[in-house]
Amino acid sequence: MHPTQNLAPSRRQFALSGLALGASALTAARGALAAGTPPATPAQSSGPIVLHGVSPRLTMHAVDTFHGSAATGLRIDFSRFDGEAYVPVRSFVVNANGRADEPLLIDDSYRCGRYEMLLHVDEYFAAKGAKLPRPAFLSKLPVRFQIVNTAERIHLPIQFGPWSYTYSRGS
């Protein structure tokens, strides 16, 4: 081999081999469709989560990612959208496990609609004595969601810190 000869493929060879690989994957997918094999779809539950003896409900769990613990002491205002504005349902303080003491909605109160939880993280971090820049980057965090099927149980895990937050639908 000549000392100046490069063993690495050129960009053109790399791009062409990538195109060939993609084309072969498309050909295989078309063959599976022609054979009657259904295309792959994202994993989804086949129905509502059913817990024997437990009625459908709305629950939540808040985790403080800054301190790495349950968000004990976090105040949350829970509201329902009435078509024009969010109307307060109740306020509560997160317990030692990072949860509300009881489900937010259950039995007759568990109805379809749009809801909001307003997390008072500015007060929470101040009470914890967190050394953060003033003014805080985040102060009140809105968590908005809707319930469309009252046969399903919904659990909202929420993670937050001084600079970001995330939530998702759990069961």
Automatic annotation (TrEMBL):
Its EC number is 3.5.2.17. GO terms for molecular function: hydroxyisourate hydrolase activity. Residues 1-34 form the signal peptide. The keyword Hydrolase applies. Pfam families: Transthyretin. It comes from the Bacteria. Coiled coil: none annotated. Keywords: Hydrolase, Signal. InterPro entries: TAT_signal, Transthyretin/HIU_hydrolase_d, Transthyretin/HIU_hydrolase_sf. SUPFAM superfamilies: Transthyretin (synonym: prealbumin) (SSF49472). Residues 58-170 form the Transthyretin/hydroxyisourate hydrolase domain. PANTHER family: 5-HYDROXYISOURATE HYDROLASE (PTHR10395:SF7), URICASE AND TRANSTHYRETIN-RELATED (PTHR10395). This is Hydroxyisourate hydrolase. It comes from Comamonas guangdongensis. The lineage of its organism: Bacteria, Pseudomonadati, Pseudomonadota, Betaproteobacteria, Burkholderiales.
